[in-house]
Amino acid sequence: SSRVSVTGIINENTPSGISILSNDSETCQGEVAYFNSIATNAGTNPTYLWYVNSVPTGAGNTFSTSTLLNGDFIYCVLNSSNTCATNNPATSNILAVIVHPLPPTPVINQLGMQLNSNSSTGNQWYNVSTGIILGENGASYSPITSGSYYVIMTDAFGCASDTSNVIQYSTTTI
Prior knowledge:
By secondary structure, the protein is an all-beta fold. 0% of the residues lie in helices and 44% in strands.
């Protein structure tokens, strides 16, 4: 009698799975939001399809967009390349996104030697030539040098307005 030895690999059925996460589930209008996936039993060549409000919008294991609207929901579908994978394709959890609108663009004017913003809070004053003016975040600002000035308003959610109008300011000496 002869014996035959057979060596083989046994592939067990393993479920594929995916979850998504983001540090940007609350964002400002127009800002880029980033999403990452964590897949299990995806195989060596998986495919990922991202959805916003059930509309396919991206591929790959990460996704980013700047066009989200308040209440949009994001999820991802994983197609495992593991031939023995069960639960294939796998659908991730759903992330609902909060998108805050941008605050209104402030308007500034000059009254005497003082510049004034129509926004009572969240102001940051800038000099066109030198940039941010540290510590100047009130509704009014009295420049000490001639130049061009503007303000950007940031709201409680950290969303920044567009740049205000620019005022050409001139110091005068007597």
